[in-house]
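Re: the request from the purification team.
They wanted to know what the chain is likely to look like in 3D before they choose a buffer screen. I agreed to run a prediction and write the result into the notebook, where they can find it.
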Amino acid sequence: MTLAWARQQRLSFCRFRYNASPSSSVRQVVVSDRFAVLLQYFLPKLALTVFAGTVANATGGAFTARLIKWFVGRYKVNMAEAANPDIDSYPTFNEFFTRALRSDVRPLAQADFVCPVDGAISQFGRIENDQLFQAKGHSYSTTALVGGDSDLAGQFRDGNFATLYLSPRDYHRIHMPCDGRLTRMIYVPGELFSVNPATARGVPGLFARNERVVCVFDSAHGPFVLTLVGATIVGSMATVWHGVVNPPRTREVRVWNYDRQQVSLKKGDEMGRFLLGSTVVMLFPKNAMQFNPAWAPAQGVRMGEVMGNHF
């Protein structure tokens, strides 16, 4: 954020180095986290993201094929699940990255709410008044997440939330957790910090300060919000009803209202995708859902599995 903050972080890191710790491995992890977070305040995140988006959208022929093969090997991507497993057939990296899966590999569970993505659970649980838990020592408000609309945020007071992180190896299409009718979409400009677990532990209010697309739905169980959070190297975010939302990137909040249009999607339908990966944050009103008791932070999840049921 500010140079003063960065200096404070640097000083805190130096103090930490000389303090006793119960475990050298724990000490190394914390040191690594702090370095990774501090570095992000100085990186040209937007320039890196624009460059990555350009490369990902380029029809690069042999270069694109080599890049995809390297990525598949580096992140151990399971191409056997892809509808098209032929790496050489993808004309751009983004078409590979947003690849469809075979129709039989993500069956929908018999539940009121299903998991909308492949990824890992960052955090989930109760919204405390209007505060969402991000990581130890960090929380942020529902109002900040949705771009400052306090009336919208108020609908989720004391409700439930789930934050799901998509790693580079994951499937990057986002699906509906339940049947829903779109009422509004809000583009909120912001930062482009990484959204990996280390950054979530180190950057206050991360998911409410990064660029994001807030999608508001009505359902049989009340309203819910599905937020696509941008990050470093995320070239753009897209929805099935609008197409690419960003770019263009603006400094102002943009709002699209769909009250007079019938944009309705069924549980399990694709609703959007990340062109390079990020995080989804969902909001549900009070007494709308009880989470799957088997869920736990840091646990891997798959699209279509049980997320929860109505009370």
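For the purification team: Residues 24-40 form the longest helix (17 residues).
Please add any questions underneath this entry.
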